Amino acid sequence: MNKKDLVAKLADHCDTSQSSAGDMLNGTLEIITAELKAGNEVNLPGFGKFIAKHRPSRKMRNPQTGAEMMSKAKTSAQFKPSVGLKDL
Description:
By secondary structure, the chain is of the alpha+beta class.
């Protein structure tokens, strides 16, 4: 399923237009993204939790030259499904 299919099913489920359903989905995704960028977690009971996971810089080796270098510290998004979603 892609985003277009999801918007169509959301519009059918909520008995609204696809344009309105697309706006709702885009708004939801923008809010989740903004919260993760701020370092907060987004918990959706019964579905799961989105977490901003910080990864510190570390030593690494270039496989071509063998030279050691430091990787950049970064924050990535992680999703942990709830128990109810895992059981499905």
